[in-house]
Amino acid sequence: MRNTLKNYGFLALVAGLIITLDQWSKYAVRTSMAKGEIWSPWEWLTPYARIVHWDNSGVAFGLFQGSGQIFMILAIIVALIIIYYYPRIAGNDWLLKVAMSLQLAGAVGNLIDRLMLEGRVTDFISVGDFPVFNVADASISVGVAILLIGVWMQEQREKKSMSETAEQTASENPSDQSEITG
Fold first, then answer.
1. Catalytic residue, candidates 22, 93, 137, 176
2. What per-residue confidence (pLDDT) applies to 90?
3. Is 129 a catalytic site residue?
4. How far is Cα 108 from Cα 83, in angstroms, rounded to an integer?
5. How far apart are CA 178 and CA 66, in angstroms?
6. What is the rounded distance in angstroms from the CA atom of residue 74 to the CA atom of residue 157?
7. How far apart are CA 57 and CA 71, in angstroms?
8. Which pLDDT score is estimated for 104?
9. 169: which strand partners?
10. Bridge partner residues of 137 (DSSP)
11. Contacts of 79 (CB under 8 A, 6+ apart)
């Protein structure tokens, strides 16, 4: 039990908080705004940022409309893969843990909508000309960005380590260097 809590505690905490925020915000929009209705606290802000009650039967950016059933299956597969893989992450790899927690939260948040709303999700955050999105979408996007940053940082550490190893080997074997240069 303690090992399970250790392995999944952070994942459950982060994903649970984001799923709660996602579902609460979507519920607030669905119960207080008509579909297509726009709300902004200040008129001058409306062209730049606003709340818009919108339904989406596709994925991010409005792609693949009407494919909600397929994305329900994909969300389940993604969630199961993350849950399976998560305990195998090295204890000190916090970027990967955060990234996977965010991606799980986004997948489950939108899955809940699709199950409750016949394959659709509620989108409501509208910024400039960017497509309307929700907290779950943002969580997935930020999780992917963190994952990419983590992969890049790991590659940089490996390159540095390889470089240091090569330098150390060269300094320990100066005769090998003279053969190479001479």
1. 137
2. 85
3. no
4. 12
5. 68
6. 33
7. 9
8. 97
9. none
10. none
11. 104, 107, 108, 111
Lowest mean per-residue pLDDT among 6-10, 103-107, 127-131, 150-154: 6-10
The structure tokens listed for 106 are: 């986004």
Catalytic residue among 22, 113, 123, 129: 123
Per-residue pLDDT tens for 146-176? 999 988 998 988 888 888 888 877 777 766 5
Catalytic status, residue 113: no
What's the token pair of residue 139?
């969580």
CA-CA distances (angstroms) from residue 32 to 24, 38, 51, 98, 141? 12, 11, 11, 32, 27
Query: Kind of pairing, strands 38-39 and 121-127?
Result: unpaired
- CA-atom Rg of the chain in angstroms: 23
pLDDT at 61: 66
* Rounded distance between C-alpha atoms, residue 106 and residue 103, angstroms: 5
Which residue's structure tokens are 């996602």?
22
CA neighbor of 116 nearest in space, from 18, 22, 37 = 22
Q: What pLDDT is attached to residue 129? A: 92
Provide the whole-model pTM.
0.83
Whose tokens are 């790991």? That residue is 154
